[in-house]
Amino acid sequence: MAKNKDARPPTYAVSVVGLSGTEKEKGNCGVGKSCLCNRYVRPDADSYYSEHTSVLSTIDFGGRVVNNDHFLYWGEVIHRGDDGLDCKIQVIEQTEFIDDQTFLPHRSTNLQPYTKRAAAAKLQSAEKLMYICTDQLGLEQDFDQKQMPDGKLNIDGFLLCIDVSKGCNRKFDDQMKFVSSLHSQLVKSKKPIVVAATKCDECVDQHLRDLQSFVGSKKSLMVVETSGRTGINVEMCFNALIQQMDKMRGKPKTVPYLEAYRLQRQVVATMTDRFEKLMMQEVRDYHTTWKTVANTLKGQTDYEDFITLEGSRKGRNMFNKHIAQLKQEHIRRRREEYLITLPKTLHNLLNNLEELEHLTWAEAQSLIRSRHDFQYWFVVLEHPPWDETDHIDNNDRRVPFDLLDTPDGERIYQKHVQHLFSEKRRVEMKERFKKTLDRVHFISPGQPWEEVMCFVMEDEAFKYITESDRRDVYSRHQQEIVERAKEEFQEMLFEHAELFYDLDLNATPSCDKMSEIHSVLNEEPRYRALQKLAPDRESLLLKHIGFVYHPTKETCLSGQSCVDLKVEQVLANRLVQLDHGRSNLYYNIASIDKINLCLLGKEGLAQELANEIRAQSTDDEYTLDGKIYELELLPVDVNSTLLFSHTWVSTFKPHGCFCVFNSIETLNCVGDCIGRIRAEIAQNRRERFAQPLPFILILANQRDTICKNMPILRHQGQQLANKLQCTFVDIPSGAFPRKFNEFQIKQALRAVLEGLKHNFDFLSPPPSIKDISETDLRIVMCAMCWDPFSVDLILSPFLDSQCCSAGLPGQSNTLILDKIIGDSRRRIQVTVLSYHSSIGVRKDELVHGYILVYSAKRKASMATLRAFLAEVNDVIPVQMVAITDSQADFFENDAIKELMTEGEHIATEIAAKFTALYSLSQYHRQTEVFTPFFNEVLEKKQNIESSFLLDSSSRECTTGASEDVFPTSPHSHSPAYNPYYPDSEDDTEAPPPYSPIGDDVQLLPTASDRTKCRIDLEGNEYPVHSTPISEHERNHKVPPPVRPKPILPKPNVKKLDPNLLRTIEAGMRSNRRTPRGTLGHLDDGEASDNYADPVDTLLRSKGFSNDDTYAVPEDTHSRMIKMRNSFGGLQAEEENGFDRRSQAVRRPSKYKHRSKILFSKTTAYQRRFHSDSDGEESGPATQKKKKGRAHRGSEEDPLLSPADPWKGGIDNPAITSDPEQDDKKMKKKKTPKTPKESKKKSSKPPKPLYPPTRRTWDSCYFGVPLQNLVTPEKPIPLFIDKCVDYIERTGLTTEGLYRVSGNKTDQDNIQKQFDQDHSIDFVVMDVAVNAVAGALKAFFADLPDPLIPYSLHPELVEAAKIVDYIERLQVLREIVDKFPPVNYAVFKFIITHLNRVSQQSKTTLMTADNLSICFWPTLMRPDFENKETLSTTKLNQAVVESFILQSDYFFYGGEVAESSSSEGTPPPRCHNMVEALLPLQLPPPLQPQQIQHTLPPDPLL
């Protein structure tokens, strides 16, 4: 031991020795000396190296670490003992380095053998560096460099290492021999020796026992069981040696290896647990790196202790394991999220159980991938599986598609399918339970579930579903019946309109009135249905009453369905305000000196006409009426492609078009061309007020043909001119050698100039605001809110016409019509309002006529009309309009029939007009529907205004002014302003088979009327005057009325229309007699008793009371004028300019006093209420008093009966009721019919629905018998085959196929061109599918006999009555087999086609039922005038429907197709229908030719 001269800790040098040498001597591995030294000097696990080689190169052996010595300096260790004493331990390892070239020991300064060299007590090596690891050799600068102190050491003790493991190619006995020799040398040094049994972790028990025996045989030699690899008892081994070197220290206690190992494992486990807990606390993201964690945890005890004990490698391994766990946990969570999302995803993609029932999981996956929204729910990864890709880290929540390949995916799919099954069953049971509730009719609105539950407990569906589902279904059922009951209650209130509309606006119902209301409504089941919801019922009633007495758009019970709002929206979208900047579109007729003429003809006629005009011209200058015009001519053939160009009109800018013809064929071609040109102009016209194009029809002289055809051409030309609203130029009388003569050309040019002049007259002056605001007639159209038809239906007659424009700004529900009514053009203001908004107009405003619209499907609509009409003055003309879907509704629905019958009877009683409009018909889109009504209003205009003046004068004096609904006055003196609108495409459509307005409506003027009028370019007639019209005649001023009984003036009197005032003043000042025109006359004597005769008032005495004062409207100075009669009454009347007797105007009454129906409805409630409230008080005295009242047309009029005389039916629901027709009806009713006559009439053979005269041209194909068009090789007519092929190729999915009618002109063109060329291609023609469909139907309509023979109709009807469905089909198939072969083949072909059309009903909306409705009249063509036919309408339609549905069964031997509604369903019972329709008669089909007035037969024909 070194001398301890200072107070420094002692320093001991320990030499570690053991078996060393070559591989032959020590084997493949050493005895563990280096590992023991390494573990003692650097005990940290990170500083321990398990490999320390002794085979070195010469360079490494000579390096500073080895320094050519066979020993290593391991460095110093500060040892602190249990007694607190410190010392330094310097560790030396004696080894023998082997040359890696010769595998012999390196030569050293000490050439002694290892046994002697290792036992040396003194060691010396200058500048020898501390050894750390094998990697240090040659790289000393990269490691810590510490030199052996003083370059020499004195060894104080020896640590003898003996390997007790199995060894590597080494015998333990040989080792012990070497150790024995070495020990004997060590003993000589007299230094302490401790034996270290190394590698005890791989210990061989026998070796250990042999070692212990060896140690036991030696004096004072101890052994310590160690393991450098595990670090067990290493420090104890050195401590034992230190104790022997320093006797002052206590003897250490040695612990066997196994015990020490157990204790160490406990420490390691504790440190590992602490480290794991620390790791779980600090590391929560699996993306964290070890370097980051090590830096973060550095300095924490648990981390440092574990790293020291186990090392960073184990720490990193544990960290990686923890990170892997975190990642797996994250993947598990994501997988759970996907698995939770997957059922929802499958529900969205695979929600149809029928698709999945028989699919495998792989097929289901393919079906999922085929969905259009697959990418929204799933993501397909390039490199599956998903949990090994970056998909786990992104935010994409879509399900990886490869997840479906897992067992979990298939399990969830199977569970989803089972859920669909159970949900389907649950829904079915809920629906069954809902139907059960629907069948329980005693469930009332508001009834609790507990009261109903006991009645349905035995139901299977009730037992299947849960209680929550039961309550949910019942709640839904209650909501439905409550809403339905409330709607029915509200409808009931509207049906009792007369009960509410008997008070003035803004009034408050009295207690008696409320009692009356409750008394009447209490008898209604719909009132009692809300008994359990009495507060809601009372709220609805009060809300309805509040609306009735304070009606506005905002309080309308229909909300956004209010007619006023809908009308405003429609008019705002379809009308434009008048453009006041149109002056640049007009030109002065006097400045025209050049006329561009388009000459239209066929087969060279246009060029011949051009040559004739040029022959009569001089250098293209034509003299007409003293003026020279430059003519530019453009001859065009009707087949020229120029007509199909969109630019020729704008390029050539024609002023007129001469259309020449000389045969029926050329006339038809010209007519078609005119229609196309007008359509093109209308479609491409950018500005609404562009100028029209006049068309002139010119008949060419036929020099080479027989003259007997000329009357036919003349008649047809005139008819076409009337239809197209253009001028017709006939051939003048006398013989002419050429086709055209000068007279015709001049007449045609005059017509063009006249048309241009006429357009200038009414288009040229830009109107002022005053002109626009003045109208000739004011018409109010009323409609009921919530009626089941579109507002477009009632507005279309105006909006689709060419003469419609918007009203003034601020009048959002008003439109202006410029039409020729009477003998001149008139401006008609039509205001479309709801009935509730019209009440104020009816009371306070001047209205010349009412158009009252009601729905024939709704009783409330008729009731509201009656309540409104009852209070209208009977001098105002009324047009009643019934709305329904089609004419068939009248025959098939008793309720519709009753309402339409009632409407016509009311119209008959009050001498009003009545018409029906059908929503499924296009004919209502013509303003001519209301033309007769406008004529009547114009005729009665003066009487209406005079009566209004009388009524308003007295009302203003008593009630003061009221607010105007119409802010402007009626037009009475300014010239009419008539804007022009382009022709619409609908002008070319032919009228429908039935006229919805009846036979008494004249759509075209008679021949005598045409001589008085000319046709303007938009289709209106205007008068032709030979002399100027007087100012009075042109202005239509109102004649001065009779002065009413005067009433004392009161302040705030409302100002009347200044135009009316000026009219009256002019009549009073002038000396002119009564103006021309009919005056108001007394309709009957019942109302004349109410007022005194004006003549009587003139002869009264001079003493007067209030009755002697007559009030006339304000003068221009807004003063009331009072006049008193003198005894020279007649003379005074003459001086005032009018004859009192001839100008007598009766005070207006109400329509309820002229109609038994209206009177009975308005008084029924009051009679019932008074009889209920008065009881016994209404004795004889009261009755006598009522009976003795003077007859004033009051509500107690004894002449009026409350009976309902109209329920017996009407002759025709579609005819327009008119007073002129009443006499005809009465005569028809009076003429009795004998039973024989009726029998004869019923025995007539059925008439075809469409007469074969539909076409206007001769054809060798259409209208001929079917057998003439087929051959055995081609049993289907070519035209049918082409039409069906075109429809199925291009239009099988067209909505409304066969229901929406195509353009009539296109249909005719198709047939005409097919007549000329059977090889035409419809695709090349580019025709509309609906036009081809219409042409196909027209083909069948033109056949001489219907496709289904008349002889089989009775059998088909009888078969349709068979209850059993299968039997019915069998009988029908037997009947079909009776068809003629030609008919059978065509019938089979067309029915098969209709079946294919019905299969596309989801897009076309044309089911077999709809197709049968459209086709059965065409295929069977019954006689609708026959009452028996009317009773079988439904049966015929059902037969055709069965043919379409079961075409495979009838014609191809297939099975009966499933039908949800037909099987087992009995046929409609038609006996009651026949009885109800017996008194009805339907007019024969109205064809386009029948609209024209017939021409007397030409004697030449």
* Main β sheet profile: 7 strands, mixed
Range of helix content: 40-55%
**Number of discrete helical segments:** 59
**Terminus-to-terminus distance:** 164 Å
List keywords for this structure.
1501 residues; alpha/beta; seven-stranded mixed β-sheet; 59 helices; elongated; disordered C terminus
Q: Could you describe the 3D structure shown?
A:
This protein has 1501 residues and is an alpha/beta fold. It is built from 59 helices and 29 strands. The strands form 8 sheets. The chain has a 7-stranded mixed β-sheet with strand order 20-21-22-19-23-24-25, sandwiched between helices. Strands 3-4-1-8-9-10 form a 6-stranded mixed β-sheet, sandwiched between helices. The chain has a 6-stranded mixed β-sheet with strand order 14-15-13-16-17-18, with helices on both faces. It is elongated and about 170 Å long.
Task: Quickly describe the structure.
With 1501 residues, the chain is α/β, with parallel strands linked by helices. Helices cover 44% and strands 10% of the residues.
